[in-house]
Amino acid sequence: MGENFVLVLLLVASLVQILVAAPVYNPRQLSLPSQLNPYPTKPRLSFRPDGTFKITVFSDLHFGENAWDVWGPQQDVNSTRLMRKVLADEKPDYVFINGDLITGENTFRENSTVYIDEIVAPLNEVKVPFSSTHGNHDNQANITHLEEILREQRDAPLSYTRVAPPGVGGEYGPGNYWVPIYAHPADFQPALIIWAFDSRGQLMLNY
Ligand SMILES: *[C@@H]1O[C@H](CO)[C@@H](O)[C@H](O)[C@H]1NC(C)=O
Ligand SMILES: *[C@@H]1O[C@H](CO)[C@@H](O)[C@H](O)[C@H]1NC(C)=O
Ligand SMILES: *[C@@H]1O[C@H](CO)[C@@H](O)[C@H](O)[C@H]1NC(C)=O
């Protein structure tokens, strides 16, 4: 009888162990409705083991100024050099790029989004997840917020920038999205949500 009791206890103990261990592979995570998992093909973003999460913000990069002068392209080279230095020093878990990414009124129709490639190059090199939001200079005669976002999505594997559903924001302001950050990679609920709202700056020009 004593032996049976010990056996039952052992069984109960292993069952408890299985139940406790199970949440590491939370089955609910696998069946998340798509609107709760907007990044099914990208890594889930989570805090570091010490519970921190460092975000670096780059603002008003204004690439593409005066392509016809020496100082314009040189300024962009200097900006990417600074980005590389900041990324190496800070080693952020996420980067947010505020508008204006590009001085759109200085760009040419045929190559206005090539500057996105220059901007994302330092981020691609260190494989840091990031996203962006756009400003009034990113909506100009030869460029729109949508064009910049599509170029970024094409050229940066770790871009978390998304386009709002059809009818929200339009070509001049589709950059409305949220990015879930989890305390632990297998958590069901995010511990932090990064929201981006597109101001549709310069929309009134109606090009
Ligand atoms: C670029 O950086 C160099 C070296 O720091 C500096 O001398 C130069 O003035 C900068 N050029 C521009 C256009 O900012
Ligand atoms: C837009 O691009 C075209 C073609 O490159 C160029 O001729 C025009 O000056 C640009 N418009 C503006 C407002 O910069
Ligand atoms: C974009 O095109 C313009 C006009 O052809 C040119 O002056 C400029 O250097 C080009 N910019 C880039 C980054 O290739």
UniProtKB/TrEMBL annotation:
It comes from the Eukaryota. Residues 53-145 form the Calcineurin-like phosphoesterase domain. The keyword NAD does not apply. GO terms for molecular function: hydrolase activity, acting on ester bonds. Keywords: Signal. SUPFAM superfamilies: Metallo-dependent phosphatases. Pfam families: Metallophos. The keyword Lyase does not apply. PANTHER family: METALLOPHOSPHOESTERASE DOMAIN-CONTAINING PROTEIN, PHOSPHATASE DCR2-RELATED-RELATED. This is Calcineurin-like phosphoesterase domain-containing protein. It comes from Hermanssonia centrifuga.
